[in-house]
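Follow-up to my earlier ticket, as requested here are the two runs.
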Amino acid sequence: MSQHVRRTLVGVAAVLIAILSTAAQPASAHGFTSTVYADVTSRDDGRIRTSLELEYDLFVVSAADSEKDDPLFRAGTAAFESGDTAGQAAALDAHAKSAMAYVGTHFALTSDGVDCAPRQSGGFTMGRREGVPYAGLVVDWACAGGSRAHEVRSGLFPDAEGFVKGTKTIVTYAIDGHSGSAALDAAHPSFSTAQTRFERFWEFFRLGAEHLLSGIDHILFLLALIVGSRRPREIVLAATSFTLAHSVTFMLAALGLVEVPARAVEPVIALSIAVVAGWYLWRIRRTGGDATALEPSGDGHFSLDRAGWTRLGVVFCFGLVHGLGFAGALGIDEAWSWTLLWSLLVFNVGIEVVQLTIIAVVFPLLVLLRRRAPAAGLRVSAAVSAGVAVMGTVWCVQRLLGA
C-alpha cells in the first residue's frame, strides 16, 4: 500500500472514529437535557411580566434540594408518579416560597444593571410539552427608573446540580419597543434588549449548530449518507434532499402547524440511521464485495440509476422525521411573526453549516481513498456502515421500550 493511500486511510479513520466515539451516550438523542420557556412582556402599570414554563419533576427536585424542602420533594414526586395534575399544582402552591426562592436565585431581570424585584402573580398551573408535565409560573418584576433596556439572565437547572446537562432557556419577548426570541444556556446565560439584531440572531445560529453537533443520531444519519454515496453528485443530492425535507417539517412543527409526539419521532429517527446504513451494506453483499460493481450506472436526470433514485426518496422521507426532531429541540410555542420566522431560519442555517462542514471534511477523504485503493475504501465504508447500523438499531429498540 502506497504512502499516500496509508495517509488517506489514517485520515479517514481518524475522522470517522472521532465521530463514532461520541456515540457512547444514552439512547436519547439529546441526553438528559431540559428546556425552560420564558415569555417576557411589558405591563400597562410599568412592570415586566414573565411567564415561565419549567419541566415539573426537575423543578420539584431542584427547588426542594436548593431550599432543603423535603416535604416539597415528597409531595411533588408523589403527584408526578401518580400523574395527578391537580396534585402537582397543589404541591407547588403549598411550597410556593421554596419554588419562588429557587426561581429568584436562578432567573433574574435587571434594568440598567440594577436587579428588578420579583413577585409571583397567581398560583402555579400545569401543562405539557413533548408529552412531559410542565409547571407554569407568572412573575411580575418591579424595576426602578425608566430604563429603555432590560437584561434577562437565566441559570435555571445548571449542570452543577447534577440532575440534567445543557439546559437552555428559550425566551420570547416584547419589551422596550423590541420583540423577538433569544436562546440562553450556560455559555450565554443572558441577553439584553439593547443587543443588535445580529447579536440576537447569532444566538439562534449558534443554537442550531450546537444542536446538530450534540445530536449524535443526526450526525450518524449524515455519516451513513456520506459513506453510502458513490460520487460527489450523490452526496450533494442526498444532502439537498435531506435539507429540503427536514426544513419543511422543522418550520411547520416549530410554528405549531404540525405536532407529533417525541415518543413517535425519536424511534423513527433511530430507525432511519439503521435503514440508510444497512442499505449500503445490503448493496455491498449483493455485489459480492466488488467495489467496481457499486459504481453508479445511471445516465438520466442527475445521472442517477434506479438505486440512486430510490435512496434519494428514502432519505427525503426520513428527513421529514428528522425535521420534527430539530423542532422538538427548539420548542418555541409562539404566535406567528416575521421575527420568529427569521429566528427559525437562522437556527436552520446553523444546522446546515455544520452539516456541510462534516460533508466537506469526510467525503473528499473517502473519495480519495476509494480512488487510490478501492478495496480499502470499501472495507472502511462497510465497517463504518455496520457500526452506524448497529447503533441505530440499538437506539430504535431502546426508544421503543422507553429505555
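Run two:
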Amino acid sequence: MQAWQVHQNGEPAEAMRLLEVDRPTPGDGQVLLKVRAANVNFPDALMCRGQYQVRPPLPFTPGVEICGETEDGRRVIANPALPHGGFAEYAVADAAALLPAPDALDDAEAAALHIGYQTGWFGLHRRARIEAGETLLVHAAAGGVGSAAVQLGRAAGARVIGVVGGADKAAVARELGCDVVIDRRAEDVIATVKEATGGRGADVIYDPVGGEAYTQSTKVVAFEGRIVVVGFASGAVPSPALNHALVKNYAILGLHWGLYNTKNPKLVLHCHEQLTELAARGAIKPLVSERVPLSGAADAVQRVADGVTTGRIAVVPTLENGAAA
C-alpha cells in the first residue's frame, strides 16, 4: 500500500515521504481500516516537527483522524493508532474506540467531525457550561477548530463573534453564521468586541491560538466570563497574570480533549451521540474546504501548518491523478 512516512523530523513538506510499504498488522484489540478520508489537523504538523506532546517512534505515518471502513463494510470514525496514521491507504485503530460515521455526512465531513467538534463540544458545554443567550468569542473562527466552535456555539443558542486574519477568512466566518466578524488585520479587536457587546465583553472565549489572542481575550472577557484554552497555533504559550483573573472575576479553563479517552470514555461516546444528532438536523456540518488525493497530503499538512487554510482539508485516497475535488 501507499503511505506517507516521516523518517526525520522537520517541516511537513520536507519530512513527509510517500512510500510503498506493507499494510500494518493490527495488534491485540485493534482493527485494520481502509482509509476513506483522513482529516488534516495542526497536530499532524507538530508531530512532523517533533513538537507535539505525543512523539511516535520514527518512522511514522501522520494522520490522527479518519473516516474508515472495517473489513465487514462498516463506515466508522477513528483516531488511528500511531505509528500507523491516516495518511495512507490503510490504518489501524483500537476497536473499542471506533465511532459510527453519521449517515448525514460524507466521508470527508465525517472524518472532520471528531477531534475539532469533540474539542468544541467539551470546551463549550463541559468546561465553560455555555448558556443560550450568552456571547461567545472564537479566535481563528474560519479555521478547522474555530469553525467547529462557531457552529456549536450557534447550535447552543449563543451570539457568536468570530475573529479572523484576512478578508477571505472573514467571508468564511460570515458564511458560518458569525453574528459579528472581526478581521484582526484591519480592525482593533478589543475596541470592536467592546462596541459589539455594549462594553460588557464576551461570556465565553474559545482560544486555539494563544499569544496575542489570549492577551486580547483577557481584556474583553465579561464579568464571570470563561476563557477556554485549547491550543497555541500562534506558537506562543501565554503566562497568565492570575491577579488579573482575580480582579476581573473570570475563569481560565484548560482543555485537553484526549484525556477524556482514558479518564472518562463514556463522555466521548455521549458527545458523539450529541454531535450525530446535531448533524442529522443540519445544525452542524464540518466545513471541508478541500478534498485532495493521497499524493497531496504533505502539501496539505504544510499549508495547515502555515495557517493559510480555512475549514478542513481532507485527504481522500480514492481521488485520482492528483486532482482535488
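The only thing I checked on run two: The first strand starts at residue 2 and ends at 6. Let me know what else you need.
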